[in-house]
Amino acid sequence: MEWETVIGLEIHAQLATHSKIFSAASTAYGAEANTQACAIDLGMPGMLPVLNAEAVRMAVKLGLATGSEITRRSVFARKNYFYPDLPKGYQISQFELPIVGPGTLEIELKDGTRKQVGITRAHLEEDAGKSLHEDFHGMSGIDLNRAGTPLIEIVSEPDMRSAAEAIAYMKKIHTLVRYLEICDGNMQEGSFRCDANVSIRPVGAAEFGTRTELKNINSFRFVERAINYEVERQIDVLESGGTVTQETRLYDTDKNETRPMRSKEEANDYRYFPDPDLLPVELDEDYIQAIADTLPELPDPKRERFQQEYDLSAYDAGVLSASRELADFYEATVAAAKGTAKLTANWVMGELAGVLNKQSLDIGASRISPEQLGGLVLRIEDNTISGKIAKEVFEAMWSEQQDADTIIEARGLRQITDTGAIESLIDEVIEAHPKQTEQYRGGAEKLLGFFVGQVMKRSQGKANPGMVNKVLRDKLGGS
Amino acid sequence: MSLSEEEVRKIAHLGGLAIRDENIPRYAQSLSSILDLVNQMEAVDTVEIQPMAHPLDAIQRLRPDEVRETDQRAEFQPLAPQVENGLYLVPKVIE
Amino acid sequence: MHKASVAELSAALKARKFSSEELVRAHLARIHAQDSELNSFVTVTETEALAAASHADKLIAAGEASPLTGIPLAHKDIFCTRGVRTSCGSKMLDNFVPPYNATVVDKIADAGMVVLGKTNMDEFAMGSSNENSYYGPVRNPWDTKRVPGGSSGGSAAAVAARMTPLATCTDTGGSIRQPASLCGITGIKPTYGRVSRYGMVAFASSLDQGGIMGRSAEDAAWLLGVMAGFDPKDSTSVDRPVDDYVGGLNQSIEGLTIGLPREHFGEGLDPEVGAVVEAAIREYEKLGATIKDIDLPNSPLSVPAYYVVAPAECSSNLSRFDGVRYGYRAQHPKDLQDLYTRSRGEAFGEEVQRRIMVGTYALSTGYYDAYYLKAQKIRRLISDDFRQAFSEVDVIMGPTSPTTAFPLGERTDDPITMYLSDIYTIGVNLAGLTGISIPAGFAGGLPVGLQIIGNYFEEARILSVAHRYQQVTDWHTKAPADAGSQT
What's the first-to-final CA gap in chain B, in angstroms? Predict the structure, then answer.
């Protein structure tokens, strides 16, 4: 039988606030255990939540950026269950009235096809702490530093039909939250996590199959692997006459398999109800409009603009708009290079991306500023240096952190464009190689390259290659 | 309205309470009588009524995003039954 | 000293007739003499109290005192007190010493008042007789074989027995007014949101409100001025100015319209209690008030709705007590589930467990609409009834509780009868209004309370209405014979 995969994703993005969603404790990552868990985060008796304004603002930004409805009156609810990383015995979340309502996101697949994925909702909630399973005399240790960190959970419709589509959607959200500067997107640190709801059904069937939920997958690669494993598993189950059990499964990265989560086995009844310690959040038009006015240009419009304005290919425009920092760097460089857009794109995506990659640096850590790189591009464009010399200049700029002109002058790398100087160089070369001159003149025109090379060598690479070619042909004459 | 002993066990489990077997019938009886009292609510038709979650018709205030808490671990952890290396200890969590 | 009003104590301290230390010692002596029998205190903070009194005396000497500086009071053991055990009447918190103060505790400390100790209460404020305390029942100073009411029974008994002039307390369904009534003292539950809930151990968050017990409305007015006010740490706290409660006490009640809800004078009301309340209302008539019968048609549903809303919220609020970060932990848990269920099963008393189960049930899948949502809708109806009534009358009056103090043990096996002792007070909590109970006489030798219900944030009005009555009657000055001297 032919099977169709059906996937819906729940993405949890930690919001990049300074303090927690309901307390004034720090959200900084990596502190010593329980040093950033205040009385509210610990669920101490008598402690009460007060909502962080920035978390609300960030959620609205996401809603606006995905063209979703912004709920004018949203309500926090308690999700009740016992777990050691959940200090109050309930998680403050949103249930019936989430802050962000339905929206859609367009994804693009590798083959260029586009697809609309529905966003069901996005709601604010608090993150839980962490259980550490290292052995403490057969016990687990609980660190509540993460408890209360604001999360936005973005729930998609079951609109994706392959792991590749799921990845494209997830990457799109990942780009978006970083563009909006509402999440650092760091998957190693758990700032951006994903649960996948996976089911299969016979191709053409209208009904969905029974789904399983794959929990807490923390890299794009693992999402793909986990989904593919799970789809194969479900096909095996169904084709051998079994039924898929609705359950929560954990992806084991070492074994590349999914297995049922024991702790979530028993059906939970979360007993959601409105949190009586918090009041409804009301947002008016002015508030929403003020946030809309501060939204940055988003990835899709930016890519289109890059294609139009800078005459870039779809691919180049896509690469350069993949992150807001890179796009900003590129545009600042173009400006410094007085609009030399295509050449700038080559340098940003070529030499600069290469050295950043090699040294595992973000664009923000570049040792060459957009102004400096633009200065280099300008010198190539106005023929002060050749492309080849430019690479040498670039390396020097990177290591010495100086601008192109300083290095070109200090090292005397300015291109030789004086006809007299080039003629005398050529005369020297012709004189030094009578045999080759004779052969050339006898018809071996492929030796022209040899002469160019010799001239360039004598000029230490500085002679303008175009002029050298032209004058050489004149001087050598030939047939 | 009468709750079975099995239902009482289920509710106790959901509520995180270990109840001794010998107390189950007593709870079944008193919970049933409370539900009888509560079921008097059926006397009124509330189809058109908006539920009221808060006594005051107020909206949530927002707090500026500022870190104001300092590390108080040394004050909180002595309250805990079992801690080690700054962590709260619990019987092994099995995922 | 133990008979003087707060204003008299304040004046005497300022005039140096006696020191705060002497005043505090006198009250500590009364506690030592009486409380082994009454059991109204869970913790007496003698050392801290004497230190605070001597500090207060210095402030008074330096002319830096506020009106309440040096005046003693007791806190219900539900308010978190830094460095002093806060048990909430539960085995669960028997070893819990919070490293923080409730906002109310801070405000009172800032006013220079002296805390004598923490008062006994029904476990997690769940109860109407104070028999649900891990620390044993409190006895009613008027008759030690009877209950003081609850859940703030310790505060009520301590004030009634003149062991403290004032006490803090909380009211979720009547837990201030009912014990005040049964103990013959004055107790005010402010409007929801008027007093901060920060640091007050939560029972039912949308109903809980801190308040005051004292011997008179005037005394309560002094303390309410200190306790009330906006607190940014409580999202449900209301940001509006605090009235001058003491300054407003002498408003005339000429032309005041008093509503008498028919539903509060019907079946279930002890006739002797009814007669005392009616006499009090006639007194108001003599003072120039107009009396009007009103209807609160949905009030018979207040107890049923309350016993869904309050347990639902408590079932969730009490989930934090899991034996991990503080509080009681069962010995040798065999696994995580065992740790939770045994810690909670062993440390919570029967009534608390009962309410957790009712609430858990009411919120569970398949029952939410029929119970929780239905109760929230009835809550709206009850609230609308009061809104309608307050469009016609200025205050509402009636009995606080249908009976006087009942014998210890009488209702412990009968939760429903116990719940019905709050039948006249619960509606006020569901609607979030303010209410006060004041002594109005005796039935069978036991105190009877008159409940005065005010519209939202009309604490100043009900205090002045209560004060006017206390100016022309002396019920509030009646004190029980000292415990220990009864035979």
Answer: 39
Q: Which two tokens stand for residue A211?
A: 């789904």
Q: Mean pLDDT throughout B33-55?
A: 95
Contact between residue C476 and residue C216 where contact means Cβ atoms under 8 Å apart: yes
Give the pLDDT confidence score for residue A264 in this predicted structure: 53
CB-CB neighbors (< 8 A) of B80 in chain A: none
Measure the CA dihedral B17/B21/B24/B25, to 10°.
180
Q: What is the CATH topology of the domain spanning C1-487?
A: Amidase signature (AS) enzymes (3.90.1300)
Q: Looking at residue A464, what DSSP letter applies? A: -
Q: From the CA of C103, how many Å to the nearest CA of chain B?
A: 17
Q: Which residues contact C12 (CB under 8 A, 6 or more apart)?
A: C4, C18
Q: Where are the domains of chain C?
A: 1-487
Nearest by CB: A277 against C199, C235, C315: C235
The residue of chain C with its CA nearest to that of A86 is: C320
Q: Give the Cα separation of A435 and A423 in Å (integer).
A: 20
For residues A231 and A36, is the Cβ–Cβ distance under 8 A? no
Half-sphere exposure of A121 (CA within 13 A, CB side): 13
Q: Best residue in C196, C355, C361 to probe B by mutation, most B CBs within 10 Å?
A: C361
Read off the tokens for C331. Answer: 């010995």
* φ and ψ at residue C149, rounded to 5 degrees: 90, 175
Domain ranges across chain A: 3-287, 297-410, 419-476
Q: Which of B13, B49, B93 sits opposite C336 (nearest CB)?
A: B93
| Residues C163-220: tens digit of each pLDDT | 999 999 999 999 999 999 999 999 999 999 999 999 999 999 999 999 999 999 999 9
Q: C-chain residues within 8 Å CB-CB of A278?
A: 235
In 3-state terms, chain B is what percent helix, strand and coil (to 5)? 40, 10, 50
The contacts of residue C60 (CB under 8 Å, 6+ apart) are C13, C14, C16, C19, C20, C69, C70
Pairing between strand A273-274 and A257-260?
unpaired
Strand order in the sheet with B83-84: A130-136, A139-143, B87-91, B83-84
Who contacts C236 (Cβ-Cβ below 8 Å, separation ≥6)?
A: A48, A276, A277, A279, B54, B56, B58, C192, C193, C197, C205, C206
Band (A478; pLDDT cuts 50, 70, 90): low
Position A64, amino acid: L
The complex scores an ipTM of 0.97
In degrees, to the nearest 5, what angle opens at C-alpha A11 toward C-alphas A36 and B87?
25
Q: Which amino acid is at C96?
A: F
Would the CB atoms of B73 and A263 count as touching at under 8 Å? no
AA letter at A471 = V
Tell me if residue A106 falls in helix, strand or coil. strand
Q: How far apart are CA A115 and CA C272, in angstroms?
A: 78
Q: Are A433 and A453 in contact (CB under 8 A)?
A: no
pLDDT at A266: 56
3-state helix, strand, coil in chain C (%, to 5): 40, 15, 45
Hey, is the C-beta of A278 within 8 angstroms of any chain C C-beta?
yes
Could you give the C-alpha distances from A92 to A26, A123, A324, C317, C372, in angstroms and in order?
A: 18, 11, 32, 12, 18
- Asked: is A419-476 a CATH 3.40.50.2300 domain? The reply is no
Question: C330-387, pLDDT tens digit by residue?
Answer: 999 999 999 999 999 999 999 999 999 999 999 999 999 999 999 999 999 999 999 9
Helix/strand/coil (H/E/C) assignment for every residue in A195-264: EEEEEEEECCCCCCCCCEEEEEECCHHHHHHHHHHHHHHHHHHHHCCCCCCCCEEEEECCCCEEEECHHH
Say if residues C172 and C205 touch (Cβ distance below 8 Å): no
In the numeric block, which tokens belong to residue A69?
A: 């409805």
